[in-house]
Design brief:
5-stranded parallel sheet; about 10% strand; Rossmann fold; globular; alpha/beta
Length: about 150
């Protein structure tokens, strides 16, 4: 079974704006079928909006990724669903957090350690990682699998 990985918009942004870096490796892992990416519509909207504003030259790369990556796209949660997280996270991030909690991913990747803190991880039971740490874990898991077989 391949790991399910919920990603924040900043992973798609960084992975589209740079040819190097862990976020690009995460997208490559999804392309090779090593992981299953999951996002919400809000994540996709935020990604496109920010790339248009900050990295317009990366827009074709984003669209290329979205055309061939098999990303599971979830509907955005309603306020009634994500309101429970408002005491521990900013309102703009609460729907993303709720969607991640609902889909019960193996990992939740973000570059936003300011808002998606250890306290948030503990409160939700999510394993929240930056992409660099995730890439190291996946590489280790695969090296162990192939060493044993």
């Amino acid at each position: 079974m391949i790991p399910t990985v919920f990603i924040d918009a900043n992973i798609l942004i960084a992975g589209s704006a740079s040819r190097t870096g862990a976020s690009r490796v995460v997208l490559a892992q999804a392309e090779y079928g090593m992981i299953q990416l999951v996002v919400t519509r809000q994540v996709l909207d935020e990604t496109e909006r920010n790339i248009r504003l900050k990295f317009p030259e990366a827009l074709p790369v984003l669209f290329e990724h979205l055309s061939y990556l098999k990303i599971q796209i979830l509907d955005d949660p309603e306020l009634e669903q994500y309101a429970r997280w408002l005491p521990i996270i900013e309102e703009k991030d609460a729907p993303i957090l709720e969607a991640a909690v609902q889909c019960t991913p193996d990992y939740f990747l973000t570059l936003n350690s300011k808002d998606f803190t250890l306290a948030v991880a503990e409160a939700t039971g999510l394993l929240i990682l930056p992409p660099g740490e995730f890439v190291q874990r996946i590489r280790y898991m695969f090296s162990q699998h192939f060493r044993l077989n």
